[in-house]
Structure formats: structure tokens, C-alpha cells
Amino acid sequence: MSAFNDQFWFAGKTVIVTGGNGGIGQGLVDAFSERDANVAILDHAPAVAPPKSRGAGRLIDIRTDITDRASVDRAVEQVIAEFGPVDVLIHNAGGGVGMARLPDLTDEIVDWTVRLNVYGTVNMMQSVGAGMIARRSGAIVNIASNAALSGMAGRADPIYAGCKGFVLALTKALAADLGEHNVRVNTIAPGWIVPESSDKTSTGSFWTRLSAFGTPESFNAEYEKSGQLFNSGGQPLKQLGRPSDIANAAVYFASEAARHITGQLLSIGGGDYMPS
């Protein structure tokens, strides 16, 4: 038996992580696989380095377009065929174009961002939620963003920020609606999170798509050199946020330790956002 507390152990459980090949996604996959879960990655892009389970459970990586309900349903059916019913959904997939202020918005940018973050979220909630309702058991953790909580954090990509605000509101509404079915729904809002290296991202990650943000290596090197936290605003904790910080919170929300918690929001960004 591992040193992990039994409440945080997922042996025999089926966990889906959308966007599991991205930077935060890999941290999520590692955390649940370390705890012996059977983990299914649903991602449109492969990881730079092939993912591997870190525990006794199995791992599968399924190319999935979350904006297409048929693609989502096929992926969920494959997961159930491989591992059995889905116990935990960590809906991490999403994203923005990075820099799209109001004068720069086009119909294409708005449509792409809404389809990925709004339609994609609804598709996953419906496809996985139906089975959880039928079994009267399940935990859903939606990954939103501090961009939805802070105007300063969301100012460079307001449509992305608005879409993540939809995820926050949807989570609360679903928590209220699904509670009678013993399905819990909570949200994590990450601040600026930096992977340890580029090989811990996917080929579709914004770290590989958007050169303006630099690379994990450049962020880590600059932090080691100067101690400065770029893109973090007035973050009180002067340290880099890591994918494992998000994963630790997701493990808690998905675990029996959080059995009486639903409809809650946890911002993880070194104190960059503090609710009043």
C-alpha cells in the first residue's frame, strides 16, 4: 500500500482527463495515475513525449475533438469499453488565441473560442454526466481560468475570459442540478502555470502555438536568473505555478475527502486573485 491516504487513492477507478497531453493536463494525468487510477486522455493533439502511467492502473490516449459531440461520444464509449464506467471527469481542455483584444476580434476567433470552451464543455458534461446520473455517483472537476475572475488577467483575450466565465456559471448550475444524483461538480481556476519543460506539453499546446509567450525553458531560465515572475501581475507568492499545483487540487475535489463539497471554486495562482 502506498503512503497516500486511502481517501486519495483511485485504484480501480476510471478517470478521464480532457486536454491531458498539455502542460496542466500532463500534471493531472500523472497525479491520478500515481494513485493507480485507470486514466483516459482525451486530446485532439498527441503529447510531445508519449504519456505513460506512473502507477498500477492503465493509460489510454484517444484523439478526440471535444467540439464534435460524435467524437466525444465515441471516445467515452471507448473508455467505458476499456476501463468500465467513468468515476471522475477532469475537464481541462480549452484555450484561447492568446492575444485578441476587442479591436482585433474576428468572427473566426469568436467562433473557434466559443466552440472549444463552451460547446466542448457542454459536450463533455452531457456525454459523461449521463452515465454518472444513471449510476448516482461521480465527480466532475472543470478547469476554468483566473482570466474569468480578474479583468486584468483576462484583458488580452476577453472572449476566452468570457467563455471561462461560462464554465464557472455552468459548474454552479450543474452542481445544484446534479446533487440529487450524488454527482459533485467543482471548478479550479488556474493562474499562470509553467511546465518544467517543453516535452511536458502537447503539439497543440499554446506553448508550441504561440511564440509570443516564450517557452517553458525560457520562463524557467529567467526565473532562475532574476527571480522575476512574468505574466503574473501582482502575485503575492513569488514562485512559479506548476501543473502539479492544479493536479493536487483536482485530486482533492475528485476524492472521498471532498464527498460533501460541490459547486465550489478554487483559484490557484499564488494569490493573484483573492475574492472579496
Characterization of the model:
The structure is a single chain. The protein has helices at 23-34, 69-83, 107-135, 151-154, 158-178, 206-209, 216-226, 243-254, and strands at residues 14-18, 38-43, 59-63, 88-91, 138-143, 183-190, 265-268. With 276 residues, it is α/β, with parallel strands linked by helices. The mean pLDDT is 92. It has one domain (9-268): NAD(P)-binding Rossmann-like Domain (Rossmann fold, 3-Layer(aba) Sandwich).
Please write out the topology.
Elements (H helix, E strand, L loop, with lengths): L13 E5 L4 H12 L3 E6 L15 E5 L5 H15 L4 E4 L15 H29 L2 E6 L7 H4 L3 H21 L4 E8 L15 H4 L6 H11 L16 H12 L10 E4 L8
Parallel strand pairs: 1-2, 1-4, 2-3, 4-5, 5-6, 6-7
